[in-house]
Structures are given as C-alpha cells and as structure tokens.
C-alpha cells in the first residue's frame, strides 16, 4: 500500500501548492495539503502517476495528432539519461515531475520502466537524478523544448 | 433603442478618455464601478473588414466561438473546424445517455436521470468575470447562484479529530478565537509595544475581543456568544424548553491539525469569493448560447492535422473523424484555439519561437466524478445546501448541488475534484475503480447514506480526454517569462487564442479575453496589409 509520507515530499508538495496559489490562480479544489503520498517503489509509482497517461500496459494511446507514446518497447529509453531529462523537464503534453516526485522516486520509476516494459541494462540511482538536477539548475521549460 | 440617442457607457468612457486622457478615464470608470475588476472594455466593436476577407477558426470552444462571432460582425467570412461533435470544448456538461470515450478505449455511458448533470470542467463563475457575464446576458444564458462558501459543510483531515469530519463554522470560529486570544496575550505582555502605539494597542485589543469573541478576561471560551457563531449544543427553541445551551470549543492543537486556515484562505481568493454563478441546467448552456450565434459556421467531427501558411493565407488539412476522409480549408488568417498538448503534436508551419512556446505549456490533470444519489440526504439529514466538504484524501472534496434544493428525487453530487498527483492517481484507474474510490472516501462525510443512496456515477479524467490530453494550462513564472509573449504574438497569418494565451489560465474569462485580443490584432493587421 501507499507508504507514509516523507517530510521531503510534504514540503515540496506544500511549496508547489503555495507557488500555485501565488502565481497562478486556476480553478482548484482548495482542499489544501493532501495526506496521499506517492509510493517509493517503481511499479507503484508507475501505477499511481505514469499509468494515468501511458496506460497500464505502457503501450500509450490516443489518435493521430494527439498521441501518448508507448514506453513499452521504446528504443529512446535505452539511454537512462533521456528518461531523467524527460521527467525533470517535461516535454509537450508530458508534464515535468520534479514537483511531484523526489529524485529517488524518479530513479525508481525509471528503473522499473526500463527493465519491466523494456529489457535495457543498467540502472540509475538517486544521485544520477540529483546530479542532473544540479547541472540543469532550476527546471526551465525553455531548454526542454529545444531538446526534442 | 436608447443606445441610438444616449451615449453608451463605452462611448461615454471614450469621450472622457479623449477629453481628459487616460487617467481621467480610469478614474471615471472606477467611480462607475468598472475598470479595477477586469480588463474587459466591452465587446471589441470591430468593423470595416476588407471585402471578401476571411478567417479560419480552429476549435469551437469559447475562445474560438467568441472570435468567430465578433469577426463575422466585423464583416469577415468565417469558418470553424471542430474535432468533436458538439460546440463548447471544455465548456461541457454530461447528462444521461452521454457517452465518454477515453484514450485507451475505456467507455462510460452516463445514466443520470433526466434534468441531472455533471459539470466535469468549468462549474463556477466569479462575479468579476465581466466578459463572460456580458456574453451570457447577451445570449440569454440564465445564471443562478453557485454556493461557494457553506459554513455548515465539513472539513476532513485524516490526521485531525481522529479522522472525523468537522463543520467548517466550528473550526473557523475556533481558529479565529484562539488566534485572537494569543495575539491579545502578547499585546498585554507588552511583547509588541515597539510595534504599535499605545492608542493602537488599545484599539487592537478591543478589535480582538469583538472579532475573536473573547470574554472579559480576553480568553476564548465556550459561551452562548461563541455559540452564536459556531453553533449550539442545544439550539434555541420555543416555549418552555427554548433556552439554548452552548457548544464546547476545540483546542488549538486540534485546529492546527485540521489545516482549516487553508479553506478560510481559499474563500478569500479573488477568483473564489462569493458571489459566484452557474448557468441554469448545466455549464454547457454557455457553449450552446454561443453556438446559437455561430453554429452555422462550425464543421463538426473535423480533426485538424496540419496547418500551413504563406504570404497570402493559411490552409488547414483536416480529417473527418467519422469517415477518415481528408479535406482542406483555406482563409486569409487563422485563429487557432487548439489546446497546446494537442497542438504541439500537429504539423504546424510556424516559427521556432511559437513552436517552442506551444511545447512549453504543461497541462494539469484534474479529475471530476459525478455520483447520482437517490435523495438529497445532505439537505434532509445534514442541513447542507450547496457548497463543498473538503478532505485530504485523493478525491479532494465533495460538492453539493446548487439547484433544485428541497426537491425529491435523484440528485448529482460532485464526488471528487482531484488535481496534481491525486488527479493522476484517479486517471490511472478504470472508471469503475474511480467511482468505487469516490464512494469509499466520500463516505467519511455521510457514512450512513453514501452507499445505500448511490445509484450510478461517471468519472471524467482530463488527461484521458482524446481532444485535449489535459485540463488547463499551468504556466510558471519562469516559462511565462520565456515563452508567453511568443505564444500570443502573431506568427505570419496565424494567431493563437484560448485560456493558455491569457493571464487568466484555467478560466473561461481568459479564453474570451484572449479571443477578443487575438482578433483585434488580426483585424488591425488585415486592415494594414
Ligand atoms: C476541471 C476543470 C475545471 C474548470 N473550472 C472552471 C471554472 O470553474 N470556471 C471557469 O471559468 N473556467 C474553468 N475551467 C477552465 C475553462 O474550462 C477553460 O478555460 C475554457 O473552457 C477553455 O476554452 P478554450 O476555448 O480556451 O479551449 P477549449 O474549450 O478546450 O476549446 C478548444 C477546442 O479545440 C478543439 N480541438 C482540439 N483538437 C483539435 C483539432 N485537432 N482540430 C480541431 N479542433 C480541435 C477541442 O475539441 C475544443 O472544442 C475549468 C477547466 C477544467 C478542465
């Protein structure tokens, strides 16, 4: 089941909530901080977060012109750095996840997707994600869009 | 019409503006109760389009339809291409018999009784969204109050009060009382003597006593006076046993656990303040109101797959979603309101800056669930008429219907309004699992009735809607600084419009203001060309 929330996650969730409240006032539930925590386990993170769009079998979906790409059998994921970058920065209809997932959660889900839905060798660790984040500095969508 | 003889408000403002300059005009408008509330200056009043000039509008949401309506009035030949088989876009209501097909194929058929509906997208209209209110009035869309703040609804936090929901009024009054008491104490110990004058200190103490309902010792304690806000243990009655008894108050630690200030603050939000409105009979009455004006211009089931342009005009290639046949549509100019998650995937002939901007706007993943219940037990058994009960669970809140109060027969509760990770968690479930989750979690508020009164439900997960793949734009300060002006700038003969092309992202007002701004600039450019 869903693990108890970690202080780090809560504080980042609260920070995201406050940022949204300050800058961007889109219609929102107004329920405040949630007690729901995202799991630390790769498979569960996939089910809780990624499955929303990439679907349970990771085969993606949608029609021409409005596609969610398959993650299963996807050659692009061979390079683990590619996935770190996509999760950190987002691209097009894919949001960034550095406000929802911690570096260790990102590493866990990357390893799960690369090995469960693909047969790629090697894993990434929390440190790889953190190193990418440090190198990239603040998340900046401007870079993302040129990273196609 | 009187408009012919007397100057309209707008003409009056223009006269003042010419005579006294912008500042005088602003002052005049503020005095007349305008201006500060909105950037809306009345409908655009474009006129004098060149003979034969044409505009192609992509998308029949509110941004596309307001553009088409005002452009036709200005003399343009207008055509709208729309992916879906209905007008309105996100301005959408789900009723009995409606089918919802998701990316991935999950299909639901709504089973609500006639007259019942869910507003899966927009549901409330602030009183200062003057553009939207203007067109609602002009197109005869009847509005009724949307009950935003309900003191008698619940706040549930799984870590407070043993997980038992509390009435908002009890928590909010107690929170106010305790904060007032503490501030009073620190004033009285002299802790703030270097911050306030003696005179202000005395006035502030008096204010705290009144505002916080403090007793003569400046303490927040149970009393009939306090019960006059938070409610009684035994409510006032008539005759022999009419005397009320006070209710007990909650302690500060429990209130801190409850996070009730989140809701108190929520209701202070500029876009969340009462008075709010909803259209009678469903939010899509607004889209239908616009479609009454421009429906003859819309080609439905037309999915645009490519948009090309040259120095003379634009050409969109579109596919008939029923037959698969492709066709093209051409015009001098194009107003494109296709939401960025979809637009970023189309073949678009535009500059790199615009393309980059389109790819830079992420969308949020809201999910809403409608639960049809046999009776209005929240009214009958809990005295809750409209408004929201909040929870820290995945569903976020439940919200009670604002119409047909005190009536018999089935009614639809909003069983979830989830965003961020919670929206994704619900999106990843099957519709049946979402509804089961909503029942399980929502039952915390109404345990005796929630299951037994349940009839049926529908769950709308926005990232799964094939024509948008998301709910609303989520600009951050950084990506707005880098991309916003590029997103709204005219690129050759194409201009983008929609909520994402406004500072009112996630509101219908933003779609309309953006549409009006986009066509005003196109019109200027077309006349100059
Ligand atoms: C959950 C939720 C809650 C909201 N709450 C509120 C609220 O309470 N109050 C409020 O004012 N606003 C609210 N909003 C925001 C509001 O719904 C939007 O701002 C507004 O309806 C968007 O209008 P639009 O014209 O910009 O875009 P849309 O309505 O999305 O119009 C775009 C149109 O383009 C069409 N399209 C897509 N792809 C193609 C293609 N390839 N070819 C042709 N056409 C295409 C779509 O089908 C659609 O009709 C909410 C939104 C959501 C999702």
Description:
The complex is a heterodimer of chains A (148) and B (529). Chain A is an all-alpha fold and 148 residues long. Chain A has a single domain, classed as Cytochrome c-like domain (Cytochrome Bc1 Complex, Chain D, domain 2), CATH 1.10.760. In chain A, 47% of the residues lie in helices and 0% in strands. Chain A has 6 helices and no strands. Chain A has helices at residues 7-23, 42-54, 80-89, 103-116, 126-136, 141-144. In chain A, helix 3 (80-89) crosses helix 5 (126-136). The longest helix of chain A is centred in the first third of the chain and has 17 residues, at 7-23. Chain A is globular. Chain A starts with 6 loop residues before the first helix and ends with a helix. Chain B is an alpha/beta fold and 529 residues long. Chain B has 3 domains: 3-87 and 284-362 and 473-528, 3-Layer(bba) Sandwich (FAD/NAD(P)-binding domain); 94-122 and 364-464, Polyamine Oxidase, Chain A, domain 2 (Alpha-Beta Complex); 166-252, de novo design (two linked rop proteins). Helices cover 35% and strands 20% of the residues of chain B. In chain B, the strands form 8 sheets. Chain B has a 5-stranded parallel sheet, with helices on one face. In chain B, strands 10-9-21-22 form a 4-stranded mixed sheet. In chain B, strands 17-16-15-19 form a 4-stranded mixed sheet, with no helix packed on it. In chain B, a hairpin with a 4-residue loop joins strand 15 (302-309) and strand 16. Mean pLDDT of chain B is 94; it is low at 1-9 and 19-26. At the A-B interface, helix 1, helix 2 and helix 6 of A face helix 9, strand 15, helix 11, helix 12 and strand 21 of B. Residues 58-64, 81-84, 89-91, 121-125, 303-304, 337-339, 342, 366, 368, 462, 467-468, 471-472, 498-499, 506-511 of chain B line the site of flavin-adenine dinucleotide.
């Amino acid at each position: 089941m869903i693990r108890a929330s970690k202080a780090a996650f809560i504080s980042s969730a609260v920070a995201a909530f406050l940022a949204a409240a300050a800058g961007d006032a889109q219609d929102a539930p107004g329920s405040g901080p949630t007690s729901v925590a995202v799991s630390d386990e790769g498979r569960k993170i996939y089910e809780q977060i990624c499955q929303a769009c990439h679907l349970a079998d990771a085969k993606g979906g949608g029609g021409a012109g409005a596609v969610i790409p398959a993650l299963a059998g996807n050659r692009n994921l061979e390079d683990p750095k590619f996935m770190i970058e996509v999760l950190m920065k987002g691209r097009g209809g894919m949001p960034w996840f550095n406000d929802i997932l911690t570096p260790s959660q990102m590493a866990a889900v990357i390893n799960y997707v690369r090995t469960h839905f693909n047969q790629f060798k090697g894993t990434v660790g929390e440190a790889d994600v953190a190193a990418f984040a440090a190198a990239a500095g603040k998340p900046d969508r401007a870079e993302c869009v040129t990273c196609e | 019409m009187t408009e012919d003889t007397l100057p309209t408000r707008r003409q009056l403002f223009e006269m003042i503006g010419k005579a006294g300059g912008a500042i005088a005009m602003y002052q005049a408008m503020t005095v007349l109760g305008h201006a500060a509330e909105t950037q809306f200056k009345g409908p655009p009043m474009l006129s004098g389009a060149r003979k034969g000039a044409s505009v192609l509008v992509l998308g029949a949401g509110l941004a596309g339809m307001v553009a088409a309506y005002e452009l036709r009035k200005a003399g343009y030949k207008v055509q709208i291409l729309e992916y879906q088989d209905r007008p309105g876009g996100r301005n959408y209501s789900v009723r009995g018999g409606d089918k919802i097909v998701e990316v991935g194929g999950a299909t639901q058929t709504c089973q609500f009784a006639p007259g019942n509906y869910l507003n899966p997208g927009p549901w409330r209209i602030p009183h200062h969204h003057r553009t939207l209110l203007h067109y609602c009035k002009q197109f005869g869309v009847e509005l009724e109050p949307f009950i935003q703040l309900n003191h008698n609804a619940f706040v549930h936090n799984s870590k407070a009060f043993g997980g038992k929901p509390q009435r908002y009024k009890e928590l909010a009054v107690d929170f106010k009382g305790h904060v007032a008491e503490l501030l009073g104490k620190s004033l009285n110990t002299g802790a703030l003597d270097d911050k306030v004058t003696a005179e202000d200190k005395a006035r502030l103490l008096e204010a705290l006593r009144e505002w916080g309902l403090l007793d003569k010792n400046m303490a927040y304690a149970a009393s009939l006076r306090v019960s006059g806000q938070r409610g009684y243990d035994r409510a006032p009655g008539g005759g022999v046993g009419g005397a009320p008894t006070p209710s007990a108050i909650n302690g500060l630690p429990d209130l801190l656990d409850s996070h009730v200030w989140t809701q108190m603050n929520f209701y202070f939000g500029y876009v969340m303040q009462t008075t709010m409105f909803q259209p009678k009979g469903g939010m899509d009455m607004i889209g239908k109101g616009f479609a009454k004006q421009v429906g003859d211009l819309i080609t439905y089931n037309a999915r645009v797959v490519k948009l090309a342009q040259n120095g003379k005009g634009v050409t969109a290639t579109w596919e008939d979603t029923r037959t698969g046949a492709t066709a093209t549509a051409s015009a001098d100019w194009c107003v494109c309101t296709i939401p960025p998650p979809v637009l970023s995937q189309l073949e678009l002939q535009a500059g790199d800056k615009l393309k980059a901007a389109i790819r830079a706007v992420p969308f949020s993943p809201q999910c809403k669930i409608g639960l049809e219940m046999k009776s209005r037990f929240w009214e009958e058994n809990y005295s809750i008429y409209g408004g929201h009960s909040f929870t820290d669970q995945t569903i976020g809140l439940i919200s009670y219907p604002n119409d047909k109060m005190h009536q018999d027969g089935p009614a639809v509760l909003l069983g979830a309004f989830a965003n961020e990770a919670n929206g994704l968690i619900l999106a990843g479930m099957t519709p049946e699992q979402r509804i089961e989750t909503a029942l399980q979690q929502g039952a915390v508020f109404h345990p005796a009735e929630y299951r037994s009164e349940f009839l049926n439900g529908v769950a709308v997960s926005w990232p799964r809607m094939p024509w948008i793949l998301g709910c609303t734009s989520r600009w951050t300060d950084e990506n707005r600084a880098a991309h916003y002006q590029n997103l709204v700038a005219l690129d050759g003969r194409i201009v983008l419009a929609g909520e994402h092309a406004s500072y009112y992202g996630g509101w219908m007002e933003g779609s309309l203001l953006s549409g009006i701004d986009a066509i005003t600039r196109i019109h200027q450019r077309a006349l100059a060309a």
